[in-house]
Predict the structure of Oxidoreductase.
Amino acid sequence: MLQFDGLRPARLKVGIISAGRVGTALGVALERADHVVVACSAISDTSLRLARDRLPDTPILPVADVAHSAELLLLAVPDTELAALASGLAATSAVRAGTIVAHTSGTNGISVLAPLAGHGCVPLALHPAMTFTGSDEDITRLPDTCFGITAADEVGYAIAQALVLEIGGEPFRVREEARMLYHAALAHAGNHIVAVLADALEALRSACDGEFFGDLPIGLAERILGPLARAALENTLRHGQDALTGPVARGDAAAVAGHLAALAKLDPQLAQAYRSNALRTAQRAHAPDEIFEVLAG
């Protein structure tokens, strides 16, 4: 069982199942905190490359061998594979009693690890509230990342909090029954903002075409939208809904109608996405009826 040195967990032998973007980034962070990644599993070409690049001294072994060698077993598999993996590991008795088993899924709490908890393991959910791309930025961002943690008891929470603090993150508790809502909030912000900005960049590139610029300068659309998008994000984080600006917030129905018409000529699906987002903006801004009438049309 894990022993504590003050508030710091003892140095742990770490095993990582699925050495992908998340698993290897956390592996590097844990090694920088003086833990030792003793083994990892990797199947895809991407995982093999990341394991060799980020954890060059760590042997790549079969899943059962990784599990058996670990005091802290990190399950960094996709959400859809987690339940089957936990059941499979429990059935083979590959994980020793007393092993800390932590997964990185956002949607799952610790109930998915029940088969392993039944064998005397310590179940933890350690979800970094961050997007991972496989670049070096994944690792540099971790010290400023918040982690949604769920555990079975106060001992588990103490372990989870200590591990997160060691790598420079900020732990916060998420109730077992609230994991799906928690992850939905993150996905709404982290994923949908990508789609919104990609749509905006597409429209802007079409607006700033060769008729005015000749060959459109590389990165111009990004340079135009970057400061605006960053300011909007920072203003929202500081001021909440008061950061809303633009035609919907000020009740300019003519401008909204013009936007919809222009976007529909470019891409009807893009216009529909604008309509949906504008409707939610109008609801939040308590916009006048004229805005809702335009959006309903």
About this structure: The CA atoms of residues 74 and 181 lie 23 Å apart. The chain has a mean pLDDT of 93. The first strand starts at residue 4 and ends at 5.
